[in-house]
Amino acid sequence: MTEQIKILLNGAAGKMGRAMAAGILGEADMQLVGAVDRSCIGCDIGELSGGVAIGVKVSDDLAASVKRCGADVMLDFTTPEAVMRNIRTALSAGLPCVVGTTGLTAADLEEAEALALANDAPLFVAPNFALTAVLMMRFAAEAAKYFPHYEIIEIHNDRKMDAPSGTALYTAQMIGREREPFAQGALNSFETLPGCRGGDYQGARIHSVRLPGVVAIQEVLFGGPGQMLSIRQDSTNRDCFFPGVALALRRIRSLHGLVQGLEKLL
Ligand code: NAD
Predict the structure, then answer these.
(1) How far is CA 17 from the centre of its chain?
(2) 67 C-beta neighbours (distance < 10 Å), count
(3) What is the mean pLDDT of the chain?
């Protein structure tokens, strides 16, 4: 039998945490050895994820769990406020990390990369683990070569903390490599209701919609004389993220320093 990847799941009681736990428990080459969250402490992660008890209880002490459970990798789906602290704790202990939590700033990533290198513990970060989302971003970057006028509309559930979404920002950054910055729209345009035109990224606009019941949707709209192109991706449930997460968990030990974006592993 091949050696199992031992995983410490952080944010285990959250929507993504539970979905990822269910996915991990279904893989023969993976073992869930630790579960951390600030809620559901003491609950069995097997039961929390909709299955049977596996004897791994949720703890609220990441540092102690890192020491105790002998994990090969930490998987983090927590919150923008918590994620840097978690990354520091894991990397400083030499534990590689796969991070899906969004909201990391450029300064955060710079600090995390230095930590990953100093501790010889790789860090993989992706704003979106769904393959259709990766393709949507790739196609959008391609379209921007021909249609530099674009706007992004991203829709997420109303509990989401950060805006714009990590995927929207990452898409804009990918497009930014194909398009010179310029201010779109009429020169003297103004807003009668502040914020209506969305966030400005190098002159293009990003609109963040927050509604109950949504998992994740993103549409990138391109306009040119007499034509419009719309590239849209829908995540209808959280199952779409696990294949990408599993790929990152299987590849993490072969990476070096900071690697960003699922497209780098495909
Ligand atoms: P959620 O609110 O359902 O879950 C977050 C969990 O983190 C909660 O259970 C919370 O108690 C826990 N938590 C908060 N602070 C903590 C701490 N200090 N230590 C341990 N646990 C802590 O949110 P969610 O929908 O599961 O999303 C989690 C993150 O994943 C968000 O940043 C979201 O944007 C991101 N996300 C990424 C992808 C992707 O493909 N990369 C996909 C979906 C969601």
Answers:
(1) 12
(2) 11
(3) 97
Atom of ligand 1 nearest to the CA of 103: 32
E strands, the chain, where?
5-10, 30-36, 58-59, 73-76, 97-99, 123-125, 150-156, 199-201, 204-210, 216-224, 227-235, 258-260
CA of 76 to the centre of ligand 1 (A): 8
What is the pLDDT at residue 145?
A: 97
Catalytic residue, candidates 6, 145, 160, 207: 160
Active site residue 160: yes
* Atom 34 in ligand 1: residue holding the nearest Cα: 102
The pair of structure tokens assigned to 237 is 């449930």
pLDDT range class, residue 1, cuts 50, 70, 90? low
Query: Biggest alpha carbon distance in the chain?
Result: 67
Q: Which CATH superfamily is domain 131-235 in?
A: Dihydrodipicolinate Reductase; domain 2 (3.30.360.10)
Separation in Å, CA 187 to CA 163, 190, 203: 26, 9, 11
Q: What is the homologous superfamily of the domain 5-125+239-265 according to CATH?
A: NAD(P)-binding Rossmann-like Domain (3.40.50.720)
Whether 57 sits among the annotated catalytic residues: the reply is: no
Q: Are strands 123-125 and 258-260 parallel, antiparallel or unpaired?
A: parallel
pTM reported for the whole predicted model: 0.94
Q: 3-state class of 240 per DSSP?
A: helix
List 156, 207, 256, 264, catalytic entry: 156
Residues in the chain: 266
- 77 Cβ below 6 A of ligand 1: yes
Q: Cα–Cα distance between 88 and 236 in angstroms, integer?
A: 32
Q: Where are the domains of the chain?
A: 5-125+239-265, 131-235
